[in-house]
Amino acid sequence: MNILITGGIGFIGTNLIELLIKTHKIICLDNFFENYEKAMKIDNLNYLINYDNFKFYDCDLSTGNLNQIFDSENIDLIIHLAGLPGVRGSIDNPLLYYQNNVVATLKLLEAAKASNIKKIIFASSSSVYGNRIDLKPFCESDITDAPISFYASTKKSSELIIYNYHHLFNFSCVCLRFFTVIGKRQRPDLALHKFALQLTQGFPITVYGDGTSFRDYTAIEDIIAGINSSINYLMNNKSVYEIINLGSSNPIKLIDFINIIMDEFNLDAEIKHKPNQMGDVNGTFANIDKANRLLGYYPNIPLRQSIRSFVIWYKEYYGLNNEV
């Protein structure tokens, strides 16, 4: 099967391609947007380019000629991972996020329609659930009309646009709401990587708030297993539209998360508290009953194991094996 993956040389994309490339041809689109160091993305691409059944296009979804690419490739299914991530950046520059997340998604769907490609998996986010003060798991049937960041609103908007293409043009779609993914190749702006940089460079670890906020951290291995199951679900069903949570359903407080990181690095650091930031939610907690039922999704990577895998990758990537 020929699978088009947008944003394929990022954190999730590279790990996903590493799995799928064994059995499928992968057509990868990415534009090297410099929301973090380009060198890391180049390293990811240099790793993937060695595969015979991998093809790469340097393409901006919002401005590129997608029709030309689609006409030259026999694509069976699209996995749409591309988009600008990050809550805080979206508050500073909402127009940029609108262009790269909403407009880009719409242009991708139009190109897919023109080429009669009607199966798509979309990477949405737990941020669409907005701010919650209770500890009840977030369910796909919950009302999601109060996002507290522009990033979250772009993800919700894209879910709705994709539903339009399902309803109007008979697309089969799965929108996967990811819950805080962690593991090897993680972006440096995400909490685990950011804390690791501060810890190994001898700086205090910066915590926004009192450390009692909680997240449903999910191993990258479990996320890509869920995406792979979504591929099978789409290929075996016609005219479906589903929103599905992919999380661990096992949230942990931020301060406890940091303590595990310090323990795995065998290092200690001062915790420097700062006020809560705009757009940050109090916590996330995935109800994964639907993923269990439709995808056979059962996350099995414990949090500490996932952090340990990241630490091993981090030390190798930064050349710290003999220093930390």
Q: What is the gist of this entry?
A:
This protein has 324 residues and is α/β, with parallel strands linked by helices. Helix content is 42%, strand content 17%.
Task: Report the total helices.
Answer: 11
Q: Sheet with the most strands? A: 7 strands, parallel
Q: Order of helices and strands, N to C?
A: EHEHEHEHHEHEEHEEEHEEHEHH
Overall morphology: globular
* Total count of strands: 13
Report the uncertain regions. none
Helicity level: 40-55%
- The first-to-last residue Cα distance is 43 Å
Provide the CATH superfamily of the domain at 2-181 and 220-248 and 286-300. NAD(P)-binding Rossmann-like Domain
Under CATH, the topology of the domain at 2-181 and 220-248 and 286-300 can be stated as Rossmann fold
CATH class of the domain at 2-181 and 220-248 and 286-300: Alpha Beta
CATH architecture designation of the domain at 2-181 and 220-248 and 286-300: 3-Layer(aba) Sandwich
Classify the secondary structure makeup into a structural class.
alpha/beta
Beta-strand residue fraction: 15-25%
- Physical arrangement of strands within the biggest beta sheet: 3-2-1-4-5-6-11
Radius of gyration, taken over Cα atoms and rounded to an integer in Å: 19 Å
